[in-house]
């Protein structure tokens, strides 16, 4: 969140940020009015306390001097001041609560060099990698959802039966591929100096507020607990949408030491999102699902180093794709597609040649976001109370937080199934993954199970 002082001193900068990020549901003038009234009442309360203290101190003096009538007047005035102060404090508390709530609705200020744009069509492509020596592909690359079913390594029907739409089974070599990617990615990031964290999967509302998911994006989250006529139990637990939430909140309301920084954590978790705000998005395959595996990198750094660390974090996420030899590109988000909490963000998009649903490179196919690398500056730190002490004798300051996926696994699976596809319908295992799959070089699939599979490739 932005600070009250920044809002007071830079209201037009905040107004401009709302406009650049396309946020039109925040009444900034009302927030400023609430802050003005709160400050006015705080001053009034201080004056009332001062007068009450002076009046109270006179009562004893007047009584000692035998001035009973004046002493009674002072007593009456003291009672009036007490009542007035109570009213002022009650109203001040109401305004304090409202102001805190309204400040949570204000977005991060974009970094000054972020390109201004209305939406994703105005994002800026910074570079492409891996297109110099593309492997030879079949004439007609089969989309991942079809080859996944043909090889019986992805099962969408049974996933929907067990849970619902947007959930799937990875089976056999498909499950091995997901597990291999998790271990491979974590090994890469350990080389880069990351310390593993295996966090709780449920998180509380305070944690979701700390990283900026709440209160704006509650509709996208899965809540845990039983409900009866819209009344929920008292657990206050949500399935995490990203490991960013628990890992960032590990140090909530704590003070780190300068010697601790930078802190670099990585975490593998399953992640859960309703995607309630997404309309018209694809439902076929595993590009957009409600449960997905991901390795997340979270950084806690000194403010003066955060943009240097941002560039390094982009490179750390890219390293996974370089070793898998998958073509990809780097996009810089414009202000309109930047996101509520980010000051600057790059997306890493892998190339998947099996579909032409989006505009891809000259070779066809489409781009799939596998990582968003973000610098939040001190936005999350203020919400979560994340501070560090530059020197032991100095006051604590807010640190900066950054994160990036390293990477979102289902979309990497999509890219592998399509880019490493062979003419005979098999899929070559990327060389970097073979040690994690017991030396397996080719995914050949398995024979389907059950009566329903007869006539669809299974022998009777």
Automatic annotation (TrEMBL):
SUPFAM superfamilies: Class II aaRS and biotin synthetases, tRNA-binding arm. It is found in: Cytoplasm. It is an enzyme of class 6 (ligase). Its EC number is 6.1.1.11. InterPro entries: aa-tRNA-synt_IIb, aa-tRNA-synth_II, aa-tRNA-synth_II/BPL/LPL, Ser-tRNA-ligase_type_1, Ser-tRNA-synth_1_N, SerRS_1_N_sf, SerRS_core, tRNA-bd_arm. CDD domains: SerRS_core. Residues 43-73 are annotated as: Disordered. GO terms for molecular function: ATP binding; serine-tRNA ligase activity. ATP binds at residues 273-275, 289-292, 369-372. L-serine binds at residues 242-244, 273, 296, 403, 405. One of its GO terms (cellular component) is cytoplasm. It catalyses: tRNA(Ser) + L-serine + ATP = L-seryl-tRNA(Ser) + AMP + diphosphate + H(+); tRNA(Sec) + L-serine + ATP = L-seryl-tRNA(Sec) + AMP + diphosphate + H(+). PROSITE patterns: AA_TRNA_LIGASE_II (PS50862). Residues 140-430 form the Aminoacyl-transfer RNA synthetases class-II family profile domain. Keywords: Aminoacyl-tRNA synthetase, ATP-binding, Cytoplasm, Ligase, Nucleotide-binding, Protein biosynthesis. Belongs to the class-II aminoacyl-tRNA synthetase family. Type-1 seryl-tRNA synthetase subfamily. Homodimer. The tRNA molecule binds across the dimer. Catalyzes the attachment of serine to tRNA(Ser). Is also able to aminoacylate tRNA(Sec) with serine, to form the misacylated tRNA L-seryl-tRNA(Sec), which will be further converted into selenocysteinyl-tRNA(Sec). PANTHER family: SERINE--TRNA LIGASE, SERYL-TRNA SYNTHETASE. HAMAP family: Ser_tRNA_synth_type1. Consists of two distinct domains, a catalytic core and a N-terminal extension that is involved in tRNA binding. This is Serine--tRNA ligase. It comes from Halogeometricum limi.
């Amino acid at each position: 969140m932005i600070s009250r002082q920044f809002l007071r001193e830079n209201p037009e900068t905040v107004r401009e940020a709302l406009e650049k990020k396309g946020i039109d549901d925040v009444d900034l003038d009302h927030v400023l009015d609430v802050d003005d009234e709160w400050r006015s009442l705080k001053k009034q309360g201080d004056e009332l306390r001062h007068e009450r203290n002076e009046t109270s101190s006179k009562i004893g003096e007047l009584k000692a001097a035998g001035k009973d009538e004046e002493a009674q007047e002072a007593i009456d005035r003291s009672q009036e001041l007490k009542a007035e102060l109570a009213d002022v404090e009650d109203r001040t508390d109401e305004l304090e609560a409202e102001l805190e709530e309204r400040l949570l609705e204000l977005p991060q200020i974009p970094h000054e060099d972020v390109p201004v744009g209305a939406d994703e069509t105005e994002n800026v492509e910074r570079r492409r990698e891996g297109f110099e020596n593309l492997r030879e592909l079949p004439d007609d690359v089969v989309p991942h959802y079809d080859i996944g079913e043909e090889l019986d390594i992805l099962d969408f029907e049974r996933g929907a039966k067990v849970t619902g739409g947007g959930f799937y089974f990875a089976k056999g070599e498909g499950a091995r591929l997901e597990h291999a990617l998790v271990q491979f990615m974590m090994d890469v990031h350990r080389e880069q100096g990351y310390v593993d964290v295996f966090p709780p999967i449920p998180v509380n509302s305070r944690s979701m507020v700390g990283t900026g998911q709440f209160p704006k994006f509650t509709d996208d989250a899965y809540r845990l607990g039983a409900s009866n006529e819209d009344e929920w139990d008292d657990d206050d637990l949500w399935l995490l949408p990203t490991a960013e939430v628990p890992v960032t909140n590990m140090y909530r309301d704590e003070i780190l030491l300068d010697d601790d920084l930078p802190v670099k954590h990585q975490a593998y978790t399953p992640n859960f999102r309703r995607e309630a705000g997404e309309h018209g998005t694809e439902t076929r395959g595993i590009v957009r699902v409600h449960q997905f595996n991901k390795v997340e990198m979270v950084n806690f750094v000194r403010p003066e180093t955060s943009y240097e660390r941002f560039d390094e974090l982009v490179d750390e996420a890219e390293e996974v794709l370089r070793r898998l030899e998958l073509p990809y590109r780097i996009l810089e988000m414009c202000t309109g597609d930047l996101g509520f909490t980010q000051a600057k963000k790059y997306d890493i998009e892998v190339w998947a040649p099996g579909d032409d649903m989006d505009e891809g490179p000259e070779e066809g196919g489409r781009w799939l976001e596998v990582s968003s690398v973000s610098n939040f500056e001190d936005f999350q730190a203020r919400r979560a109370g994340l501070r560090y002490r530059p020197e032991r004798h100095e006051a604590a300051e807010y640190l900066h937080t950054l994160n990036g996926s390293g990477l979102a696994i289902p979309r990497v699976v999509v890219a592998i199934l399509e880019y490493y596809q062979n003419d005979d319908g098999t899929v070559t295992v990327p060389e970097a993954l073979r040690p994690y799959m017991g030396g397996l070089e080719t995914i050949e699939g398995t024979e389907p199970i059950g009566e329903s599979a007869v006539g669809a490739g299974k022998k009777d």
